[in-house]
Amino acid sequence: MSKGTVVLAYSGGLDTSCILVWLKEQGYDVIAFLANIGQEEDFEAAKKKAVDLGAKKVFIEDLRSEFVEDFIWPAVQANAVYEDRYLLGTAVARPCIGRRQVEIARKEGAQFVSHGATGKGNDQIRFELTCYALYPEVKAPWSMDANLMHIRWVRPHILELSHGPADLYLMTKNPEDAPNTPDVLEIEFTNGVPVKVTNIKEGQSKDSPLEIFSYLNEIGGKHGVGRIDIVENRSIGMKSRGIYETPGGTILFKAHLDIETFTMDKEVRRIKQALSIKFSEFIYNGFWYSPECDFVRHCITKSQENVQGRVQLSVFKGQVYILGRESPKSLYNEELVSMDVQGDYDPCDASGFIRINAVRLREHHRLQSLADNKQ
């Protein structure tokens, strides 16, 4: 007699194939779920393998568009980056995959979900927190990762801190081997979200979310943009090495940062920057579906109402160079900042401003000097 039905997040690789067989041996009916989030994969071959190993059903779900629109775009609006360097390509994919896994589990009446993430990593936490948040009654009986946004490499030899092998990268060329002429792009934003990308030299444009992101991956990959080799702090407390390729995400991060600074009030942006750090931590630690993350996400969305305009940039040999920007919501006043035109600004006002701000500094150092003299 079956112990129940399990929906397994299946990749076709060794880990999840072993788990599928083990679950069958333990007496579970297994439904294999393969998520297409942009990784290079032979899904039909993986489906056949799952059936051959005993899967009761196999679902192949194309999640690429919703991955971009519902998960990558909010990360772009937030300038989400973990520990100043990691653009969260794996972390932001997990709530997308987990959401569909739960939908299938509910539809099929499955009591259990399973995955191939290791207990030492972050992904077990991300998958299971997502499933418990969206399907509270569910139980969870008991890697390279790639998707549309990036590739993360975890191999035995890169767990050491030595130089990574040259043939490791798949999405990006070595910048030294990249073309000798740049690609010049214009990216248009509305509400902090890219709505169009144009290759100025080629006259080629993309305007659907999936096409925009895929094209930026293509251009960024061609020029070797978005490679990082870092040591990061995992959710469970240990440090780990990660080598990541995020070509399209890196281009968008640079472009969005530029148009946001151009169009957002200074004090609003200071608050938004603090919220972005929290948002990045929530994503990394698996709390996408938490009430606190939902609150922060709504605040960030509100902050993006005036982030509108176009950014021109050059992509060349591993780098993204901002060339210019324009916006109907610009807060830049050329006359106000000019050294040649006084405009509405009275330089005498600065004297009072300086004296007020100096009160605290003068008093601090006066008291510090008194304390030092007593010693």
TrEMBL record:
PROSITE patterns: ARGININOSUCCIN_SYN_1, ARGININOSUCCIN_SYN_2. One of its GO terms (molecular function) is argininosuccinate synthase activity. Residues 142-362 form the Arginosuccinate synthase C-terminal domain. Keywords: Amino-acid biosynthesis, Arginine biosynthesis, ATP-binding, Cytoplasm, Ligase, Nucleotide-binding, Phosphoprotein, Urea cycle. It comes from the Eukaryota. Pathway: Amino-acid biosynthesis; L-arginine biosynthesis; L-arginine from L-ornithine and carbamoyl phosphate: step 2/3; Nitrogen metabolism; urea cycle; (N(omega)-L-arginino)succinate from L-aspartate and L-citrulline: step 1/1. GO terms for biological process: argininosuccinate metabolic process; L-arginine biosynthetic process; urea cycle. It is found in: Cytoplasm, Cytosol. It catalyses: L-citrulline + L-aspartate + ATP = 2-(N(omega)-L-arginino)succinate + AMP + diphosphate + H(+). This is Argininosuccinate synthase. It comes from Gasterosteus aculeatus aculeatus (three-spined stickleback).
